[in-house]
Amino acid sequence: MKIRPEQPGDQPQIRIINQQAFAGDTEANLVDTLRNSGVPLISLVAEEDEQLVGHILFSPVTLSGQNNAPPIAGLAPMAVLPDWQGRGVGSLLVTTGLEYCASAGYVAVVVLGHPDYYPRFGFVPASGFGIKSEFNVPDEVFMLKTLQGSALQGIKGTVQYHAAFNEA
To answer: Do the beta carbons of residue 148 and residue 73 sit within 8 Å?
Structure first.
C-alpha cells in the first residue's frame, strides 16, 4: 500500500471513492469545491497495484476569537472504497496525513468523526482545549490532535471551516 499526494488525473477516481464510501455525492462535491477554491489542501490517496482505494483531505480552518491563532487543519473527508474498508487503509491515510500536516506547519488537526475511531490516533474532545465546532454536534465527536506540544496553550475559540462545508 502506497500513500501519496493527489496528482493531476486522480480527481475522477477520488470522486468515485468518496461517492462509494459515503453512498452519495455530498463528500465528493465537497472535495471538488475545496479543490477549486484555491485554499491550500493536503490531499492524499491510498494506492494498491496502481488502483486508488482511499482518499483523505485536510484543509485549513480558522479559530474565531483569536487574532493570531496558530495554523490548524481540518480532516474531512476520509474515504475508503467499501471493499477495502477494515483493512487498515484508513489508518494509514490518517497517520500519514498527520505527518504531512505537521510538516506543513499545522500545530493541530480537528475532526468531526466517530468517537470510537479517531482516539486511536491521539484525537481527544476539542472541548478540553476550550475549542468547539461551529456546527452543533455532540462534544465527543468533535476532536482535536495536537501536533506541536503546547502550541494551543491559552488558545480558545470556535473552529470555522471553509464556506464549502456549509454548502455541502
So the answer is: no
Q: Residue 92 sits in a domain of what CATH number?
A: 3.40.630.30
Residue listed under C-alpha cell 475545496: 34
For residue 69, give the nearest of 166, 159, 162 by alpha carbon: 159
User: How many domains does the chain contain in total?
Assistant: 1
Q: Are 157 and 66 in contact (CB under 8 A)?
A: yes
Report the chain's mean pLDDT, rounded to a whole number. Answer: 94
- Segment 76-92, tens digit of pLDDT: 999 999 999 999 999 99
Tell which residue, 80, 116, 77, 111, has the closest CA to residue 1.
Answer: 80
Maximum Cα interatomic distance, the chain, rounded to a whole number of Å? 47
Q: Are 73 and 28 in contact (CB under 8 A)?
A: no
What's at 96, amino acid-wise? Answer: T
Give the domain range for residue 140. Answer: 2-167
User: What's the pTM?
Assistant: 0.95
Average pLDDT over residues 38-54: 96
- Long-range Cβ pairs for the range 36-41 (8 Å, 24+): 37/162, 37/164, 39/162, 40/104
Grid cell listed for 68: 493570531
H-helix segments, the chain: 11-22, 26-37, 89-103, 164-167
53 membership: H or E segment, kind and range? strand 51-64
